[in-house]
Amino acid sequence: xxxxxxxxxxxxxxxxxxxxxxxxxxxxxxxxxxxxxxxxxxxxxxxxxxxxxxxxxxxxxxxxxxxxxxxxxxxxxxxxxxxxxxxxxxxxxxxxxxxxxxxxxxxxxxxxxxxxxxxxxxxxxxxxxxxxxxxxxxxxxxxxxxxxxxxxxxxxxxxxxxxxxxxxxxxxxxxxxxxxxxxxxxxxxxxxxxxxxxxxxxxxxxxxxxxxxxxxxxxxxxxxxxxxxxxxxxxxxxxxxxxx
Length: 244
What we know:
This protein has 4 helices and 15 strands. The protein has helices at residues 10-20, 43-55, 126-132, 141-148; strands spanning 32-33, 60-70, 73-83, 89-94, 100-107, 110-115, 120-125, 160-161, 165-167, 170-175, 178-184, 187-191, 200-205, 210-222, 236-237. The chain has a 15-stranded mixed sheet that branches. A hairpin with a 4-residue loop joins β13 (200-205) and β14 (210-222). Mean pLDDT is 86; it is low at 1-26.
């Protein structure tokens, strides 16, 4: 398996964990309530329903399978994803053994990334962390989370409505069951099957050099708000995630 650096040396350290049999386990998995599918008769009604849900700023969580691709390399891992009405985003990723790999927490543009494998942490802007995960740097954390769950990136009214919907500079193609494709500045999100919540979505850069596929295994309404992670006092500061 080829390894993408999610943080400095994180891929190599995952292999080391497999060899040494590390047992450190961490989980921030939430209890979720399944969300009902859209009841729309067509794309226009579906958009109205999705925008209504988006404006409610729902608490959402998912246990997901994630694949990161960058410059021909691929890495897959399981993770929990959670967002809340404040717009906070938290991703807790796991090694193949189920031990903690990394935690990403974003509150607005302020982002914390903790490398549990190498016992280090970093604080900075979300675009830097996003690029380290194969994502475009032009998406803010809350917009990214909303798209990943199959909702509009923004709660603003649309400026154009027809075969395509334009909202805050982002273009949407909508099916009666959910979003089909979303295009923004330097990125595209394609949904494997339109649905809400989304079942699988690939967010890629316009040049095709980086991509992340999120396949939701257990998505739903979250049981609690997103909490900021605690940083172990023994972890080293400040190791910046590697930019792609």
